[in-house]
Write a structure and sequence with these properties.
single chain, alpha+beta, eight-stranded mixed sheet, 8 strands
Length: 186
Amino acid sequence: IGDVRMMLADFGFRAKFDPQGRLFNPSLGGGALLDIGVYVVSLASMIFGKQPSILTALSDIGMTGVDEQTTMAFRYDTGALAALTCSIRTLTNQEVSFLGTRGKIRIHSPFWNSHAATMTDVEGKTVYVEPDRVGNGYNYEAAEVNSCLRGGKLESSTIPLSETLAIMQTLDSIRTEVDLKYPTEA
């Protein structure tokens, strides 16, 4: 698909409202951004190889004080853009699209456990792919942690500590942008 110039990703579901549950309780770090927004932010980081140079965000802060849905727009030094959404109150398409200079890739829903992707070039030729995969998508995270622990490694070479910290810095910048604070913060 050439150089990836844009990424569109959404991860949202309608959770049952429980003010004491982990999704809606600010004392437990609840909200869409930290629970599932981290996945779309991490994917953007993986695709573009760094954190955005400019970001903006909007959130709907619910009655318990957590973000129930958040929309983010990122710009990278290369000019590439990412539009990302996450929600614990709204069912989204749960898809990802990478838009390049010579085509696009759409990872079908749910993107973290997708059974298929569609690639389309600028001439309109489409290829439908059903890759081999194991488990529900989250199992790869658990396998990497297990491998690191068994190997005595203190960090993953796939997602090193520096990448984790950079992604958390991006999430913190988003929280600052939407004025989202937790009870443990001064």
